[in-house]
Amino acid sequence: MAASPNLSIVVPCYNEAEVLPETLRRLEALLAGLQARGRISAASRIFFVDDGSRDDTWPMIAQAVDAGSPVVGVRLSRNRGHQIALIAGLEAADGDAVISIDADLQDDVSAIEQMLEKFEQGTDIVYGVRRSRGGDSLFKLGSAKAFYGLLRMLRVGTVSDHADFRLLSRRAVDALAEYQEVNLYLRGIIPLLGFRSETVLYDRHERFAGQSKYPLRRMVGLGLNAITSFSVLPLRLISALGFAVSLATLVLGAWILVGALTHAQLVPGWASTVLPIYFLGGVQLIGIGIIGEYVGKLYLEAKRRPRYFIDRIHRRTPDTSER
Ligand code: UDP
Ligand code: MG
User: Which of 102, 149, 210, 253 might form a disulfide with 18, Cβ 3.0–4.6 angstroms?
Assistant: First the structure.
């Protein structure tokens, strides 16, 4: 590559005032180091996306900009959730390469240089893959493992043990921006883009400070999005189950008929009458629930509501070190 690339680092932040100073310090040091070695251009910036925080996150970001840090602050009009904050940041970023990373320093900042190396070799997408997950609770580990297993079963193409720590080339970001769905699950969309992709291994750390902003409710929501946005297999399974049950009932009916014709006395079966009713009732309710889940998604997508609004973009003007 001729000139050194402009690197954008996108960091979604929701009530992250506790970790922000340390995150800023580390990312700033990283950018300075890379710039000093001529790896990235002087126009490279860290894009902090404030996802409607209620603490001091935004004032801290704004202050960093005013103090001359290579930072651009993007503030959303309200809290929209991690995935939307991410896409807002990716769309605001202007780099030749864009790296997304969590604000809480769970992702290893030092892996960024390896990602950049792969980018320079012509890779469009570099996934950060967790070699270990030191900082996560047993529950999070177990649920994540089960969830990735389920996704594989449902043939949703995702990269296992990869969160949203990744590098995207300019054309990959532009391609991603064409996916207009409101129910975003980036980890599912990005493998669909194609392009040359590679992985970089890193060790997942503990959250540097503060608490997880992903309560169980949000985790379940993200999981449902992952399944219903990328797989129609649950719907097919329901049809298959219905088909199998109907077939079994036909066979059973034939068997009873034969029994009634050949033996004079048949024991009147309570269980064989009542159990199928309950069973089929349950199957139907599950089926309706699954269909409802998809219909709900259709409803939300059909409205084509805008994904986010930007309240403010705060950057130094004129941005003196711009190319
Ligand atoms: N986050 C966000 N909006 C939200 C929730 C989270 O922008 O509504 C950000 C958060 O600030 C962090 C990242 O998403 O940078 C991941 O969140 P967190 O670390 O709380 O999730 P966990 O690592 O516990 O899954
Ligand atoms: Mg985290």
Answer: 210
Give the predicted TM-score (pTM) of the model: 0.79
pLDDT tens digit string along 268-323?
Answer: 776 677 778 878 888 888 888 888 888 888 888 888 888 999 999 999 876 655 44
| d(CA 316, ligand 1 centre) in Å | 26
Nearest atom within ligand 1 for CA of residue 15: 11
Query: Which token pair is 322?
Result: 């711009």
Chain segment 150-208, per-residue pLDDT in tens: 888 887 777 878 889 999 999 999 999 999 888 888 888 899 898 999 999 988 887 77
- DSSP, res 155: T
Among residues 59, 93, 53, the alpha carbon closest in space to that of 77 is found at: 53
Q: Among 104, 140, 187, 208, which residue has the most ligand 1 atoms within 8 Å of its CB, making it the best to mutate?
A: 104
In which domain, by residue range, is 118 found?
7-139+147-210+306-314
The CATH number of whichever domain residue 111 belongs to comes to 3.90.550.10
Total domain count, the chain: 2
